[in-house]
Structures are given as C-alpha cells and as structure tokens.
Amino acid sequence: MEAFTTHTGVGVPLRRSNVDTDQIIPAVYLKRVTRTGFEDGLFAAWRNDPDFVLNQPVYANGSVLVAGPDFGTGSSREHAVWALMNYGFRVVISSRFADIFRGNSGKQGLLTAEVAQDDVELLWKVMENEPGVEITVDLVAKTISAGDLVAPFEVDDYTRWRLLEGLDDIGLTLRNEQDITEFEKSRPAYKPTSVPRSA
Amino acid sequence: MSGTLAEKVWDAHVVRRAEGEPDLLYIDLHLLHEVTSPQAFDGLRLEGRPVRRTDLTLATEDHNVPTTPGPITDPVSLTQVQTLRRNCEEFGVRIFPMGDREQGIVHVVGPQLGLTQPGMTIVCGDSHTSTHGAFGALAFGIGTSEVEHVLATQTLPLKPFKTMAINVNGALPDGVTAKDVILAVIAKIGTGGGQGYVLEYRGEAIEALSMEARMTVCNMSIEAGARAGMIAPDQVTFDYLQGRDHAPTGADWDAAVADWSALRSDDDAVFDAEVDIDASTLTPYVTWGTNPGQGLPLGASVPDPATIGDDVDKAAAQRAIDYMGLTPGMPLRDISVDTVFVGSCTNGRIEDLRTVAGILKGHKVADSVRMLVVPGSGRVQVQAEAEGLDQVFIEAGAEWRLPGCSMCLGMNPDQLAPGERSASTSNRNFEGRQGKGGRTHLVSPEVAAATAIRGTLSSPADLELVTTAGE
Can you give the residue ranges of the Aconitase A/isopropylmalate dehydratase small subunit swivel domain (chain A) (predicted)? Predict the structure, then answer.
C-alpha cells in the first residue's frame, strides 16, 4: 500500500447525502475477478445523467471527493473502495461515514476525512465558485485547504498511522514475520499438509 | 487453567498477542473455491507477494459447476473457474478441477480426505466452513481480504470469539435426525442468537451422532449467526479419520490421538452463554418461512402472524407467508412441493444418500415432483454408484447428477423457477436463494425422500401409515 502524507488534487463536489455502496458500484459489477478496472462502474447510474459532476470535463482528473453526510452506507462490498481508488480518488471528505466503508477504506489506503458539515458546505462553495480548484489534504497536520479555506479533519489515530506508514493489514502482519516463522517451528509434526501423500 | 474447547484450540494457535491488538492466529488449513478467491490472488499480484504456505492450501471448484455433463456455458461462471485454475497454477496451489475424482463441495472434500482434523484452525471464503468444527476444529468463514491475508501470511488478526454451549440432553427419538436438531436449535435461539459466538454442541444426543451427522449440525451454525460450531472429538472422530489419505499414521497417529483426546471443555469451564435442549421432545423439523429460524415441527401448522407479539417478528412472518404463498393455520403436511433437492454441504454426503435411497427403494417419486440428487463430491458419487444407490434414485424417477453446490444457491443452471416450491436438504431458505421467486422449505434427507414420494411435506412415518392402510 502506498504511503499517504499529503495529497493535492482536483476537488469534486458531490452534493448528495446517504451515498450508499450500491450507488458507488452497482451489484452487476461484482461478478468481476480482478481488483482493478472498477472505475467504469463508479456511480454508474448517475453517470447516465450528462449533468452529473463526474461528466463535467473540469472534474475529469478529480481525486478528492467532497460528499454529503452518511457516505458509504449499505452493503459491505470492498468493491466500493476499489471503484473510487481505480477512478483516481485518494480522499473522500464527508461529515459522517458508514462504519464498514470507513474500515474498508482504511485497509485499502483511501483516506476518509471527517469534517464538520459546515466545512463541507464551505468546501462545496469554494469548488463551485472555482470549478477544478485543487484541494490539499495534509494527513500529518490533519487539515484540508482549498483557496483561503483551511479546515481541520478527523481520522482515527490507528488508521492515520497505517496510512502514513503505508501499511496494509498484510504489511502490518509481516512486520512480525519472525513470530510466524518461530510459531511454524513449534507445530506438531502430525499436522496435515495438502500435498499428495504419494508424491 | 480451565477452558472451553474453542478457547483451547484458539490458545494453541496464537502467534502473537499484544495489549490493545487483536491476537494473530495461525491457520492450519486454508480452503479455496472460485467465487471468493479471485480478488485475493489479484491483491497478491498487485503487491508482488507469494502464497506463504501452498502446502496448507487447497482449492476446489464447486459453486459454479454444472451438475450435468458438459462444459460451463455461463460466461461469468466460466471466468471464475478459469481464473481459479490460472491462479492456482501461477501460485502453486493444489486444485481439484471439474471432472477430477477429488472435486466436490469444499466442505465435503476436506473431511473425506482426512485433511480436517481435531484441534486445527481452518478457514475458507465461505460461511459454511463451520462444517469442519464437527471434528473439534475451529473453522470459520472469512471475506476476500482475509483470504488474501491468509494466503500471504498463513495467519489472521482476530479478536477472540465468545463461547456458547448448546446442550442437547437425552436421546433423539427414532426418525429424528441431525438436521432436525440444528433446525430446532436455530428456531430456538434465532438467526442472530449466535452472533459473535462459537457454539459448542454437547450432550448425549450429539455424542450419539455419526461424524457426517455432526457435520450437518456444525454446518448450519452460521444460520444461527455464529462464527463457528464445534463438537469435541471422541472415538467416533478418531475412527472416521484413521486410514484416510491425509490422516497421521504410525507414531504420528498415536501422538495425534493423545493430543486430540485432551480437546474437550473442562468440567469447570465457563461459557459466555448456555442453551439446553431436551432431545426427547424433538420431531422432524421443516421451515415454513424465508429464514432458517422460521421452522416448526412437521406436525405443526403455518403460524398466524396475528398471534405473534413482537412487531418485528410479526411483520417478518407476514412477509414470509406472503412470499411463500402460504395461509396461516394450514397444516405443514398439506404443503405440496414441485421440486425435491438432495445435496449441498449440509446433506450431500454418502450417509445422506444412503438414507434417501433406503426410503425411495420400491417407491416412485410423485408425478408432480422433480427430484434432484446431487452428490457432494466425486468420491461420494463413486461410492454411491458402487453401492447401486444411483440406480435406486433413477428407478424411483429422480435425477442423479454430478457433484457440486448446485441448487443450494443456484449459481449454476440448477434453479427454481419463479413461484416454484422445493423441499431442500440445503441450508438457506432466503427469498430467491434457489432461483428468483423460488420458495424453499429446508428439510432433512428423510423428509426430502418421503416428500418426493408423497408430493407433500412428509416424514418416512407418513409412508408407513399409507402402506399399512393400503394393505
């Protein structure tokens, strides 16, 4: 997982609340067998609307999504995080995230920055006054800046540490690989393996 | 220090324990199938990580495979199966593909090879992994990220589960089976009653069950919301294992049995919860609704939602009755079915097929009923055919199929049509589970066979009554 300290990119205003994971990536895309390529399913239903924010060229390179409260509710599908990241998003800003989505995001390296709803409104205004404006998200200082606006955000300390270090779950476990190797030496000899006996 | 069976197995697998962190648990066996593994392998590829212990990993094709001869025609199913084959080849994992004698439902394959043993930790990206707990293993289903984690590290970071004792005291009456026990347990504690727990099934009725019957009980632990189900290993377990392909031999066998014999909850162990069930009161159970907790004795009637006090339960019952096309007060025995499905990781083993054949022999499947018999694995198929069970099924008018998950979840072409009603030996009666609009009644193999003959939900005892009356 790529380490995250600070990120600057085009902000995308998504003026909707309760953006559920079925909207982020509809079930029909779940039949795939890869971890990549889900960007085409991101907000698939909404992208049929020519006025939808991601259909506007100025937001084509958007990487910081600013959404209404209760982002990521519904099904636990990890594909929702993959779709956002495959599209190019590194940060989602909202005043409230669904727990499972926030957990899945932290594991994959997508920063979910929680800010006061008043600040979300201010961010939306900045972006709408100047479409395509860049937003800087500083995970060290825990601040978001856009134009003259600087707003603090919340992220739990554990997730922040992992993102700063670039550690996914597996990376974390492998920091203690020596413990695993030691444990393996102590396993009883009679424990089975899947290797054919005749081989 | 005293402990429960689950705690003993857990403690023997802790690789690392640190304040404020989940325990890092070692995994003895990781089973894979085609549906939940592709993104896990892709994740390894993206990070350039190998599979740590290919020798503790085994894959089989089951969810998507057709049960009639010929190739997979559905493109999505085909892609999943081909992807698993490619991944196993690339990463060096042993796989049992379609057509291999060892291929079959993942939870049938592990035990029959002797790979599932007491005291092991076993995981698979499938909720019915609880099946393996019948051997006194701690076995549970995991998600795709966790599959990737186990592939890369052979461990999982986990918070300890709570423990619940399910004491099934006394002896089961004649004609009452493991399936009836677990349906009664789920009806009693509810589909969420086991949430966060490992269930340990104990008591005289459990000890009297065969290994395969114990697997049926543990298999459906997840239907009570539990992470896992376990039964302490005993002589029945050891006898089942001895001589199987991957079971220990010689001095290893003796060492293993010595260790396994200590795998039981201590007399003074404290469970977080206990449930008592009087086995002598149980009768054949069937479900009437759309979750596995909505079950009743076969002799009962469809409940009247108006008599249910709890508003949530009342609404759920009404919704279920509407979906199932039933009328409150209707005797369950009056419900006619269109299809009978015998198979799945719950009841697709050789003992189940012997039971069904024993009841079908000399009878015909009712004209109005289509009956599918799907062996749980290639080995079960071969054994059944060696015993002539396939001929019994065919002569009775049932279809004898190839091994796979089949109509349990309808990922392959074996599905119910909208409105079609089944009596099914599988594990889930959710809306649309066996096909869009399909209606499922969960039953034991005994009830499935009798129902196929009579066309209405029935137990073998109902057949005897008819035969006697006819004479």
Answer: 1-117
Q: Do A194 and B15 touch (CB under 8 A)?
A: no
A107: CB partners within 8 A, 6+ apart: A168, A169, B145
Which residues in chain B have their CB less than 8 angstroms from residue A188's CB?
255-256, 259
Q: What is the mean pLDDT of residues B270-274?
A: 98
Q: How many domains does chain A have?
A: 1
Q: How many helices (H) and strands (E) does chain B have?
A: 17, 19
The answer to whether residues B115 and A192 touch, using CB atoms and an 8 Å cutoff, is yes
Q: Chain B contacts of A78, Cβ < 8 Å? A: 39, 143-145
Question: What CATH number is attached to the domain comprising A154?
Answer: 3.20.19.10
Which three-class secondary structure state does DSSP give residue B330? coil
* Residue A193, in any domain of the structure: no
Query: Which chain B residues are Cβ-neighbours of A191 within 8 angstroms?
Result: 28, 117, 120
Contact between chains at B114 and A187 (C-beta distance less than 8 A) = no
Residue B147 corresponds to which tokens in the numbers above?
A: 């599959």
d(C-alpha A103, C-alpha A93), whole Å:
15
* Cβ within 8 Å, pair A193-B155: no
* Structural domains of chain B, ranges and CATH numbers in brackets: 5-274 (3.30.499.10), 332-470 (3.30.499.10)
Rounded-to-integer distance, Cα B1 and Cα B364, Å? 58
Q: Is residue A196 part of a domain?
A: no
B466 pLDDT exceeds 70? no
Q: Are the beta carbons of B157 and A173 separated by less than 8 Å?
A: yes
What is the ipTM score, two decimals?
0.93
Q: Show the domain range for A72.
A: 6-168
- Would residue A54 count as lying in a domain? yes
To the nearest whole Å, the CA of B371 is away from the closest chain A CA by: 30
